[in-house]
Every structure is written in structure tokens, then in C-alpha cells.
Write a structure and sequence with these properties.
The complex is a heterodimer of chains A (449) and B (322).
Chain A: H1 2-42, H2 46-80, H3 82-91, H4 94-115, H5 123-152, H6 159-165, H7 173-177, H8 182-211, H9 215-253, H10 255-262, E1 273-275, E2 278-280, E3 283-285, E4 288-290, H11 293-299, H12 324-350, H13 358-384, E5 389-391, E6 396-397, H14 398-401, H15 408-434, H16 439-445
Antiparallel strand pairs in A: 1-4, 2-3, 5-6
Helix pairs in contact in A: 1-2, 1-5, 1-8, 1-9, 1-15, 2-3, 2-4, 2-9, 2-15, 4-5, 5-8, 8-9, 8-13, 9-10, 9-12, 12-13
Chain B: H1 5-33, H2 35-41, H3 43-67, H4 72-78, H5 80-103, H6 112-139, E1 143-144, E2 149-150, H7 152-156, H8 159-179, H9 186-207, H10 213-231, H11 233-240, H12 242-260, E3 263-264, E4 269-270, H13 278-321
Antiparallel strand pairs in B: 1-2, 3-4
Classes of the chains: A mainly alpha (449), B mainly alpha (322).
């Protein structure tokens, strides 16, 4: 039984992890494509137009695979976690429902945007479609994050009665949809997703800039690099600011998760910030403690006498796996590094200084990879930090939500193997499609703007 | 018959989903049996329809989750094997069409025809899976709700179940030449559709899950009117219009859905007893109104552009062929 539950957990995590890679790129491409097309029309610059067309083709592949992957997730949710979805269906199905309409907005706009590019004589009308595509992708992220927020801070029903009797009563779907952590999570997750995708795209542009053989190709990639860098900076900046707010939200609403993330075993005033470290035999080791830093960040004072949450306040059976302290450090450390680099890039772009040196280009590639790791680390921290609950605060444990049918095993393995093929396939062919004809020919094909 | 506005919406969504997925199944028939003609008349519509189908599928799944969450464990446990196979085939199908449409470059000795044919066969299999689940919910054969299991052998051995699936497939096969304006004799289309409707209709009656037989008969007549109108020269253009055709199919599917409601499992289950909390139903109602309005506006824009652009494209294609 336990092994099947763990398998369900692994399969869901694996599918979500794969889906996230596709989603970050889908969101970033939709936003960056829109900016690039606008610049192309506004500046009457065919190079931007060529890149927008290329990005639209890549987006078609990401969207197609993302749709399939999203459908797989929708089916997995109710087939692997039926009891969880029953509760969601009764209390918090609204965000999923609205997400479908965001999905429609994205899919219909995208079909029109890609397949009927030349149908629109007014180029701004065509560009307006890209806004709908971007709005659809971003709204999808908003609604899905709302469900996740509800899992972290459940609301909109009589929780004490449900915990004691298992009966759902007092349902208020809007209160569930706008759960206490919803605004903060949306403010952090959506820009973080855009940032991860933007930097991945930036890495791709940088690689192609280095491989480019003609001046015009280099010019197109450099223009794209600048757009991706600026979008990435804005997104990573917002994600950083809201990340601080997220920690305050955890402090108030999920103190156990906060304590695990900070590896606070006991009460210390003022609290030190632990950088790195692992837990061996219940004792944190190999970390660097910065005295008072945690209290300073949380209470904005060196002399605060307020306590921060600590693990021994809670029964050990309710503790999440403590490795989330490390995933959290990776998220914050990596995010800060990329943020600083993007600020440097931005300054050089504004000051019209060269960013085509090897240091900058290789740093862009490293940033792209690093930010995907940062993004996944953040996701792991959030999800694993809620364990052993699938819905926090004693509402539902992972074990009680799972489908324990043995039929899950063989086909689940098949699906995992499948994803191992599908994700590289998507990235490989999207990269191919982005440059499947010469830039010169494409510029010829683009009419007057 | 009890009336529930959320079920009504679910029926409308089902009708629209069925109409859209049917056009994909019809495209699959055309690709398999008339590939060369399909290249000119079907391929242009394929990707837009395919992308919308996926979205509608998710829409329908989420609507069912919102409407009857208590049914989810029954579905999840009973059909888990079929659902997971469905997922694998679904991904394969998407890969084949993406490869055919966006990636194909005559490599690895794989022809574009092979990719499209693979897509068509896999689409048929998916359609079969959807029909198996839908039919088994109606007949209850092979489905043990208490044990939460589904026995395919038991389902297949009940002939009306097979008849409903085969009849539906034949009906769609008969209609495909009208939707895609293939060079097929209109009498043949009518004949095939009539045969399909007789088989599926008789099977449906034997399954005995209906609540109102007259609604079911009207559903059959709406479907039958498509090939009949196609035989009248003055009305052929009207009925083969993509939006009109899909409208007829959606109405027929909706009526079939409503002729069953509120029964499932050969009248052993009352769907009304499984419906969600009223507060949630109210919110879903508003959400459907808001989202439905948005969807309607988007669909109108989409079809307007699609049809106008398609006319230009097909006219240009016809000139090239001449």
C-alpha cells in the first residue's frame, strides 16, 4: 500500500516537474514574442518580425505538448488522487474551472495568431492577438496557483467539522478560491515562472548568437537577447520582492513549514540565518550561521524580541522532510545571483555598452540553466514543505488521498518513460523549428511592415 | 424529469465537445480512406480543430469534476487502466500530428502519410476509449460500482454495447464526406449514416438507460437531416458549412445526452443524487456564464477568420489543381 502511495506521489511529481519545464517556456515565449512583435511593428524592423514568427512556431509546439501534458495532469489528478479531487470538487474547483477558460483564450488566440498571421492587414490587430495569448497563459498560471494556495492555506468550508467528522459543510467557493495565501503566492509564482522561462530563452538566444555566422543573424539574436534580458529582469525582480512577502506569509499561516525551511529546531532570539547545512541524527550540521540575520529579515530590527517559529513546537510526526532547507537556499541563493546578473545586463543595455563578450554570453547560458534549477527548487520547497499533508492543517494527508489500486504501477512506469522521451523531443524540435530556414530568406518573405 | 441548470450546461458542453471531437474522427476517416483528397480538403482544418478538441476535453473533464465530485473515486478506480492507456495513446497521437505538421522533413524513412495515418488510427482508438467509458456508464455492463472495477470482457460480451459503439463509428464515417466536402456520392453518405443510426439507435434502446425516448428519436432525426439536406442541391452549401454542420451535431449530441439524464447504469443510478453542493453549483453557473460569453466571443472571431481564410485558401487550391 505504502509503495503504491509513494509511486503515485513520484509519478505526480515527475509529471508536474516535466510539465513545469514546458510551462515556463510557454509563458515566457508568449510574453517575449508579444514584445518582439510590437517592437517589429512600431520600429518597422523586419528582424523583430522574423524572430516573432520563429517564436510563434516554437510556441505552437510548446503549446501542443503542453496541452497534452496538461490533459495528462488533469486526468492524473482525479485518477491518482481521487479523494483529494472529491474535496477539491466540493470546495475549490472554481479556479480549475476558470483556468479552462483562460486555456480557451490562449488556444483560440494562438490558433488565429499563428495560422492566420497574414490574414490581418492591420498589423496591430494581429499583435493584439498575442496579448490574448500571453494573457491566457498568465491567467492559467494565476488560477492554478490559486488551487495550490488553497492546499497550503485551506479555507471556504467548516474545517473543524471536516477534520472531526469527514463531512463537508459551510462551503463558500469564493472564500476557497481567494484563500489567505492566494495573493502572495500568485505574486511570487507567476513572475518566477516568467523569469525562469525568460532566462531559458535568453540562454537559447545567447547560444545561437555565439553560433551565428552572418551579421544579420547576430543582429536578430542580439535584439532578442536584449528583450529577454529586460523581461527577465522585471520578472526576477518582482519574484524577489514577493518572495520576501511569501516568507512573512509562511511565518503567519504555515509556521511549521517556515521552521523547516529555516531549520529552526529551537527558539532563539534573535534568530540566526543558517546558510546550507544538513540534519544528521536530528542535529543540523555543516552550516554557516549569520547571527540575528533571520530576525532582521523577518522583523526588520537587530534587537527584535519576537520569536520565530521552531520545529520542536510541533509533533515530530508532522514535520516535513528537512532537506527543504537546502532547496530553499538553492532557490534564494540562485535567484539572487541571477537577479544581480540581470541587473548588470540591464545597466549595460541602458548605457548602450557591449554585452556580446564571452563572459556575458556564457553567463546568460548559465543563468538560464540555474534559474530552471532555482524554479524547481522553489516548487519542491513549497510542495514537500507541506508534507505529510496534501491539504495543510490536518485536512487531508497524502496517504488518505491516493489511489491505491495496483493497476497504477505498470502503466505509470510507461507514462514516466514516455515523458522522458517527450520533454527532450519538445525542446530539441522547438530549437530546430526556431531556426529551420535562413534568416535572409525569412526577411525576404516578410512583407512591408 | 428533474431539471437542473448545471446539468443542462454540462449537456451543452458535452454536445459541443462531441461535435468537435467528431470532426476529428471524421478527419481520421478521410485520411485513412482518401488520403490524397484529404491533403487538399482536410489538412488545412486539422490543426485548429485538434487544438480546440484538447481544450474542450479538459473543459468537459473539469465540468464533470465540478458537477459530480463524488463520482470521481468510482471513475478513477474502475477505469484506471483504461485511463492510463488513454493518456499514453493521447500523447502518441499528439506527437504524430505535431511531427507531421511542424517537424517533418523526410527523415528516418518516415513519410508524412505514415505520420498522418498514425494520427488517424490513434484518434480512432481514443474515440473508442471515450465511447467505451460513456457506453459502460449508460449500460452498467462490466462496471461494478461497489467494487470499483471495470471488466472489459463483460462489457464487450453485451452486444448492445458493441452495437452502440460500432453504430456511432459508422454514422460518423457516413457524415465525414459531407463535412469535408469529399467526392463521395451523397446517396452513399445517406445510406451509411442510416445504417449507423439504425445500429446505434437499436443498441441504445436495448441498453435501456433512456429517460425519454422521444428526445432520443429527435436526436437521431437531427443527425439524419444532415445527409438528407446534403442531397438537396440548394441546401448542400448550407449543411456542409462548417459552423452549421457542427451546430447540428452538437444539438444531436446534446439531445442524446438529455434523453439519458438523470439515469446511469441502465437506470440503476440517479445522477441527481450525486450532484455537488448548491453553493458550488451557483458559482459554477456564474463561471459558466462568464467563461461561456468569453468563449462565444472568441469562437465567433475564430470562425469568422477561419471560414474567410479557408475560402481563400481552398479557392486558391482549386485554381492550382485546375
Amino acid at each position: 500500500m505504502t509503495s503504491i502511495i509513494n509511486f503515485d506521489r513520484f509519478m505526480m511529481g515527475f509529471t508536474l516537474g516535466s510539465h513545469i519545464l514546458i510551462v515556463t517556456l510557454t509563458i515566457a515565449i508568449s510574453v517575449i514574442m508579444s514584445v518582439i512583435e510590437f517592437l517589429g511593428i512600431y520600429l518597422k524592423d523586419k528582424e523583430y518580425e522574423v524572430m516573432a514568427r520563429r517564436l510563434s512556431r516554437a510556441l505552437a509546439i510548446f503549446f501542443a505538448i503542453g496541452t497534452a501534458s496538461g490533459t495528462v495532469l488533469a486526468i492524473e489528478l482525479f485518477s491518482l488522487w481521487p479523494n483529494f479531487m472529491v474535496l477539491v470538487g466540493k470546495i475549490d474547483i472554481l479556479p480549475f474551472y476558470y483556468e479552462v477558460f483562460a486555456f480557451f483564450l490562449e488556444s483560440i488566440s494562438l490558433v488565429l495568431y499563428i495560422y492566420y498571421w497574414d490574414y490581418f492587414k492591420n498589423r496591430y490587430q494581429h499583435w493584439a492577438l498575442s496579448l490574448f495569448v500571453a494573457a491566457g497563459t498568465l491567467l492559467s498560471a494565476v488560477f492554478i496557483t490559486m488551487v495550490n494556495a488553497w492546499m497550503n492555506t485551506p479555507s471556504g468550508f467548516n474545517i473543524p467539522e471536516y477534520i472531526s467528522t469527514g463531512t463537508v459543510s459551510g462551503v463558500n467557493p469564493l472564500a476557497a478560491m481567494f484563500s489567505p495565501s492566494a495573493a502572495v503566492e500568485i505574486g511570487h509564482v507567476v513572475p518566477a515562472t516568467l523569469a525562469a522561462g525568460s532566462f531559458a530563452l535568453l540562454a537559447y538566444f545567447a547560444i545561437n548568437y555565439m553560433k551565428a555566422k552572418t551579421d544579420i543573424t547576430r543582429s536578430i539574436y542580439m535584439k532578442s537577447i536584449k528583450v529577454a534580458a529586460i523581461v527577465g529582469l522585471i520578472a526576477v525582480g518582482i519574484a524577489g520582492l514577493t518572495g520576501d512577502e511569501s516568507m512573512r506569509m509562511l511565518y503567519s499561516l504555515q509556521p511549521l513549514k517556515y521552521a523547516a525551511i529555516e531549520l529552526n529546531f529551537h527558539n532563539h532570539i534573535p534568530a540566526a540565518e543558517k546558510l546550507g547545512g544538513i540534519v544528521i541524527n536530528g542535529v543540523p550540521q555543516y552550516y554557516i550561521a549569520v547571527p540575528g540575520l533571520q530576525s532582521l529579515i523577518m522583523f526588520l530590527s537587530f534587537n527584535s524580541h519576537q520569536a520565530v517559529p521552531y520545529l520542536t513546537q510541533f509533533p515530530q510526526s508532522q514535520w516535513p522532510p528537512l532537506f527543504i532547507h537546502l532547496t530553499f537556499d538553492v532557490m534564494v541563493g540562485g535567484g539572487a545571483l541571477v537577479g544581480l546578473f540581470s541587473l548588470l545586463l540591464f545597466l549595460r543595455i541602458v548605457l548602450k555598452k557591449d554585452i556580446s563578450g564571452k563572459f556575458y554570453l556564457y553567463s546568460m547560458v548559465i543563468s538560464g540553466i540555474l534559474l530552471e534549477i532555482v524554479y524547481d527548487s522553489g516548487w519542491v520547497t513549497d510542495e514537500v514543505g507541506r508534507q505529510p499533508y496534501i491539504i495543510y492543517n490536518h485536512v487531508m494527508t497524502v496517504a488518505s488521498a491516493a489511489n491505491t489500486s495496483p493497476s497504477v504501477l505498470p502503466l505509470g512506469i510507461g507514462i514516466i518513460i514516455f515523458y522522458c522521451l517527450v520533454v527532450p523531443f519538445t525542446f530539441y524540435f522547438s530549437a530546430k523549428v526556431l531556426k529551420n530556414s535562413s534568416v535572409e530568406k525569412e526577411i525576404e518573405r516578410v512583407g512591408d511592415l | 424529469m428533474a431539471f437542473n441548470v448545471e446539468v443542462l450546461f454540462n449537456g451543452i458542453i458535452f454536445g459541443m465537445f462531441f461535435a468537435i471531437i467528431s470532426t476529428e474522427l471524421m478527419a481520421a476517416s478521410a485520411i485513412l480512406f482518401r488520403y490524397e483528397e484529404s491533403r487538399r480538403k482536410v489538412f488545412y482544418y486539422l490543426v485548429p480543430i485538434w487544438e480546440i478538441t484538447g481544450t474542450f476535453f479538459v473543459f468537459y473533464v473539469v465540468n464533470v469534476e465540478a458537477l459530480i465530485p463524488n463520482a470521481l473515486p468510482i471513475l478513477a478506480y474502475s477505469y484506471i487502466s483504461y485511463i492510463l492507456i488513454f493518456i499514453v495513446i493521447y500523447i502518441l497521437r499528439n506527437l504524430s500530428i505535431i511531427s507531421a505538421e511542424f517537424i517533418f522533413k523526410n527523415r528516418w524513412n518516415i513519410s508524412r502519410k505514415t505520420l498522418y495515418s498514425t494520427y488517424a488510427i490513434l484518434t480512432y482508438i481514443l474515440g473508442f476509449f471515450v465511447l467505451v467509458i460513456y457506453t459502460s456508464l449508460m449500460s452498467g455492463k462490466g462496471l461494478n460500482i461497489n467494487a470499483r472495477t471495470f471488466n472489459l470482457a463483460s462489457f464487450v460480451s453485451y452486444l448492445p454495447d458493441d452495437g452502440f459503439i460500432i453504430g456511432s463509428a459508422i454514422t460518423l464515417f457516413g457524415l465525414s464526406s459531407i463535412f469535408y466536402k469529399l467526392d463521395v456520392n451523397s446517396i452513399l453518405s445517406l445510406g451509411v449514416t442510416v445504417i449507423g443510426l439504425i445500429i446505434s439507435g437499436a443498441s441504445f434502446l436495448t441498453i435501456n438507460d433512456y429517460s425519454n425516448v422521444y428526445i432520443m428519436i429527435v436526436s437521431g432525426l437531427v443527425t439524419l437531416s444532415i445527409p438528407i439536406l446534403n442531397m438537396i442541391p440548394n441546401l448542400r452549401k448550407f449543411i456542409s458549412d462548417k459552423i452549421t454542420f457542427q451546430g447540428f451535431l452538437a444539438v444531436a449530441a446534446f439531445l442524446l445526452f438529455y434523453s439519458v439524464y438523470p439515469n446511469l447504469g441502465s437506470r440503476t443510478i440517479d445522477v441527481n443524487s450525486l450532484l455537488n453542493d448548491s453553493a458550488m453549483q451557483t458559482q459554477i453557473f456564474y463561471a459558466t456564464l462568464i467563461g461561456g460569453t468569453l468563449l462565444l466571443i472568441m469562437s465567433i472571431v475564430f470562425f469568422r477568420v477561419w471560414v474567410n481564410a479557408s475560402k481563400n485558401r481552398i479557392n486558391a487550391g482549386a485554381e492550382e489543381v485546375e
